[in-house]
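Supplementary notes for students who missed Thursday's class. We covered one full example, reproduced here. Read the sequence, then the structure, then the short commentary at the end.
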Amino acid sequence: MTEGLSVVIITFNEGHHIAQCLKAAQAVSDEIVVIDSGSTDNTVEVCKAYGARVITNPWCGYSEQKNFGNAQTSFDWILSLDADEVLNDALIQSILKWKKHPQAASFKRMTNYCGTFIKHGGWYPDVKVRLFNKRETNWEGTIHEVLRGLSKENTLLLEGDCLHYSYYSVDQHYAQAEKFTSIQAEDLFQHGKKSPWFKRVFSPISKFIVDYFFRLGFLDGKAGFTVARISAYATFLKYKKLHEHIRLSK
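Structure (token representation):
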């Protein structure tokens, strides 16, 4: 297969921010493949305007959707991006150098939370393996999917940051916590996990203490406190929903 780098992005109603993702991706890619699951906004039009090849595929789960996208690429080497991620200039230069001698590689991700970049609390450096050969691995997992057989320890770490514009409002963070904890609770239930009362009580408290104090979340100011608080709340929701699954199954 011809050497080159395919950027794969999965989308659903990402028109408000995907342009900056695509603009940065153009600097390193030989093709951009977008797998859209039925957007009703202008996502598809924006992607096509930036030269992306857009393929519509009904939503089938995070890992399955990404694996489907990998199968549509012209090249074996893939850079997997989310629609709200933007390569900064340093990372762009690192990837351009990486293309001369490609191997599985990771990079650091820095999340912008309501206008503030979060650098503590366990949110940074948030190393992600995103450059890989599709013939050597595939995505696995229902949420926070990972590449089978690859890890941070046996991959090259590139210089630069991937800027993650994930949250524009606190309400959006709460909504994502509701969505993701439902998926997590279902997954835990399917794997036979339990939700004893002490885990529902003490896990959220522990989560807040670790993230805010031990992982220095307080250094990110008000945003750091909000992030730690909602992360603790999400931990509570996960075990609460798991408890409901178990109760209803009896």
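Commentary. The mean pLDDT is 96. Residues 170-249 form one domain. If anything here is unclear, bring it to office hours.
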